[in-house]
Each structure stands twice: as structure tokens, then as C-alpha cells.
Amino acid sequence: MRTYFDKLLNSSQQHKQLPFIYPFLISLFSGAVFSFALAPYYYWWLAILSPALLYASLRKRSAPQAFFIGWAYGFGLWFVGAFWLYTSIHVYGDTSAFLSVLMIAFMALVMGLFTALQTWIYRRFFPETPLTFAPLWIFFEWAKTWVFTGFPWLFVGYAFTERFLDSYAPLFGIFGVSFVVIILACALVEILNKRVFWIIPSAILLLGAWGASYLQFVEKKAEKSLSVSLIQGNIPQDLKWLTEYQIKTLMIYANLSRTEWGRDLIVWPESSIPMFQTDIEPFLDAMKVQANKTGTAWVTGIPYWDLKESQIEQHPMYYNSIMASGDESNGLYKKQRLVPFGEYVPLSGWLSWVLPALQNDPSMSGFSRGARDQKPLNVKNHALGAAICYEVAYPNLTRRNASQSDYLVTVSNDAWFTGTAGPWQHLQMVQMRAKENGRWFIRATNTGVTAFIDHHGHIVKQAPTDQSAILRGELPAMQGETLYMRFSDWPVLIVSLLLLLLGWRFRPRKVDVSFKSRR
């Protein structure tokens, strides 16, 4: 690897570049290995090496070459990093193995265009420096949270969720962590290219992380801790929505909860009740009576049919929701972001022939999006900011839901991706959201990973995966605001924009001239 770096970095001095195929293949490889920096592998150093190789591969390359180098990196990143989609498409979607792989490859080609456009813009308009490469990286990570509704996965900062650089998260969020990682990765390349002055900014960033680790934005409330029980039913995904299995599902959760009544809060995971509230009112009433009788709050995932909205809109309004009831508890949260291929099928009318088994699954079609600003759930005089499944991948959405909250709760059903890296990557995002907002996160799932995560983003306790389980914990309520809660992503986005404006203003004119001469 060092030999490759030497050849790549010194090629400009020799007035002869390596053949294009070398940086192309190296970028493909470096994108493919990046996901091993994340959970469940935790080879964090790959989060430095992977973007460093891409940065080095772009040296002295034309903008069109940079486009394809970036595309190769992006394809490798998404094909390997999101290959957990194969389980939902092939196993539960009843799609052939060949077609499933083809669909993931197509997704990787589309998502890879983010990196392709990023590297094209970098080589077309900006000088070769970490101070332009890193800001562009951040803007394109940010774009993945909203372009085409967003697919905010595989961000480089997640590799440091429980490591040294995560102390930047309460200040600037995941994009602040990613910014620092990319600067350090590019600085490594510059130092190997004998530009040793990059040791100084690298040291400053590392010292900044050390200093930030001593900052305290939140503190425990005086109230006693909340006793919480999480119920993991381990319902197989291929049985979950079958009509003949619905009552059995309810009995599994009810039986697991029998020993937990009397605790402050019992949480069931996403869609643990596989029927609309209108179809199961006697059961819900019985659970509410039991909760009130024992002084317990009950929070559960449930499909919700809003009859009032349906009359107004003149068509059924269904929501994936979390409902709170029981002793001193109430509230309903409607999911705002729906997950493609894990919860609904994009362009389902066109793809019905590709994914026939998913068309009869109520969780895969017909859900509406919840309103942007919803009140926290009220549980035992505590405010619970809610997030359902995929929503926790959206930093700003979770930040809004965390506002004015004492705790954060997320329910999920990752049975779609059993046995893959997907649930662990998902858990890592929950950890980062807890760190960003300075709140304990209560995470209840159907098959795992069910866990309690403290306000530092550390997993305090977790249940075994792929088996029925009960997880108990005593959780303190937190108060106060992190810097990220107050200012969102704006500080890192504004700094990135300023750096790009400076880079564009002082870019070498030969960048424009060489581009025009090739047209």
C-alpha cells in the first residue's frame, strides 16, 4: 500500500501518471472495504484509509476521470456496505438470487453517483487540498439525508461512535465528526507527500477532540430513575403479517410482559401489534386497564388508521406509529420517514412483478407520512422523543424529536435483515443520535438489537439477538441542551461553504483552462 501511495503521489513529479485503471480499481477497492470500519467489525482505521486512498487517487486527474474514479468508490461503498438489503429482497421478497444481486448493484450504481458528482466538482472547480475535499464530502453526506427522501447510511463519522473523535458529536453532530475524519485522512496523504505542515492542523483537531471530551452540556434531573422493561418477541418476518399468526403474536408479547407489570414503563417494538387499532380495541382496552391497575406506562408500535383524517382526505390514512397509554401516560407519534425495501417498495406499481411476495404485506404499502412537528410522548410525567426504525438515521429529524424531551425512544423491526450487518449499523446510528442530543435512548426491537444507550452514546445493556428476551434497566432523565441540539448542522455546513468559496476564489486558473481545452 505504501508503494502505491509513493507512485501515486510522485507521478506528477515524474510528469507521467499511472494508467487510469490503477486509481479506478484502487478506488473501487477502498470503497468496498469502508463498511468494515463500521459495526459489527469496528476496524475504525479503515475509515481513515478508505477516503485517503480516494483522495490520493484523484491527484492530477481530469474532471471526467475523477467522475469515474468517484463512481467506482461509490459503487464499492454501497454494494458491499448495503448488501444487507439482499436478505429483505431475496429471502422475504421472494426474488431470485441473481435478480436480488442485480437490484443491489443498480442501487449501488445510483448511490455511487453521489461520490461521482462530488469528485467531478472537486477536480473541476477546486484546488487539490483537504480544505476543499473535506467540505465537499460533508455536503454530499448531508445531501444523502434529503435528496429523493434520503438514504443517510454509511457516513464516515459513524466509525468513531465510541472512539476518540466522537466527542465532536455533541458540538457539531455526525457531520462534524465526518469532517474531522476526512481532514485527518487527507492530511495523512499530504504528510506522506512530504507536506509535513499538515501535522499541525491534525494535532489541533486531535487536541480539540480531547478537550471536547471534558465539556458537559447535560445533567441528570433530580427525579428518580425510570424503571424500564423492553420486550423482544422474536417474531419471524415471514409469519409476522399472516392473519393466522396475529393472535399468536399478541399472546407472545402479552406473556413476556406478565412479569413486568408494576415497573414504570414497558416498551414493545415496531408493529408488535400487527393490526390496526380499529381491529383490536378490546385488546388495547384490556392492556390499558392492566397498565393503570399496576401503575405502569405502556408504549407499543402499532399500525394506526386515522379515521378523522381519512374522512377529510377521502381516502384511508394509515400510519406506522408509536402509542403510549396506561398510568399517567398518553400520546401518539406517527412516523415521518419510511424505509425503502424495508418498509415499503419504491415504485411498487412498477416493481410488483419483481417483488411479488411483498405486495401482500400491509407494512410495505399504503402508509402516510406523519407531520413534521409532533409532540413527545407523555410517559409518567416524562417527555419521550420518538423515532421509528429508519428515522433514527436522520440526524436533524431525531434532533427535532429530542427537543424538550427527557428520554429518546426508538422501536424497530430489523428482522428483515437478520444475520447481516444492517441491524448493527442501525444500532451504531442510535448511539450517535444519543451522543448528539445528550439523552438516554431506549431501543426496543423485534429480533435485536434491543438495548439501553446512555447519553454518551455507550451501550449500557443489550439483549441477545434472534431470541425472545426481556431487557430491564433503570434510566435517569436528562436535562440541558447540547450545542448540536441548539444549532443543528448549520455550523459545520456554514464552515464548509466558506472553505469552498475560498477554494473557488483562489483556485488555480489552469483548472478552468485545462477543462476548456478538453471540451
UniProtKB/TrEMBL annotation:
It is found in: Cell membrane. Residues 231-477 form the CN hydrolase domain. InterPro entries: Apolipo_AcylTrfase, C-N_Hydrolase, C-N_Hydrolase_sf, LNT_N. One of its GO terms (molecular function) is N-acyltransferase activity. Keywords: Acyltransferase, Cell membrane, Lipoprotein, Membrane, Transferase, Transmembrane, Transmembrane helix. One of its GO terms (cellular component) is plasma membrane. Its EC number is 2.3.1.269. It is a multi-pass membrane protein. Pathway: Protein modification; lipoprotein biosynthesis (N-acyl transfer). One of its GO terms (biological process) is lipoprotein biosynthetic process. It comes from the Bacteria. Its main location: membrane. CDD domains: ALP_N-acyl_transferase. The chain crosses the membrane at residues 20-36, 42-58, 65-86, 98-122, 134-156, 168-189, 196-217, 490-506. It is an enzyme of class 2 (transferase). Belongs to the CN hydrolase family. Apolipoprotein N-acyltransferase subfamily. PANTHER family: APOLIPOPROTEIN N-ACYLTRANSFERASE. Catalyzes the phospholipid dependent N-acylation of the N-terminal cysteine of apolipoprotein, the last step in lipoprotein maturation. This is Apolipoprotein N-acyltransferase. It comes from Acinetobacter kookii. The lineage of its organism: Bacteria, Pseudomonadati, Pseudomonadota, Gammaproteobacteria, Moraxellales.
